[in-house]
Amino acid sequence: MKIEVLGPGCQRCEELYANVQAAVSNLGASESVEVKKVKDPQYFMKMGVFITPALVIDGRVLSVGKLLGVEEIARLLRENM
Q1: Helix (H, G, I), strand (E, B) or coil at 57
Q2: Which listed residue, 46, 52, 62, 81, has the most CB atoms within 10 A of its CB?
Q3: 3 state SS of 53
Q4: Cα separation of 16 and 8, whole Å?
Q5: How confident is the model at residue 44 (pLDDT cuts 50, 70, 90)?
Q6: Residue 55's domain spans which residues?
């Protein structure tokens, strides 16, 4: 599974990235999940994201403009595993 957090590096983007890492760790999926920060605005546009932060799982944009909590992210991960 590949998870991307899209954002320019703002506070909310960093918090979403930390929450994603915590959710992955809580699920014990660190070995099978790649978590990546993406700061390239051209990539955001390619993905159809115009408001950050955004959460992308395996190429699917699942959240835009929201700071999801650890539990919300864990639920999304379970649904997409």
Answers
A1: strand
A2: 52
A3: coil
A4: 12
A5: very high
A6: 2-80
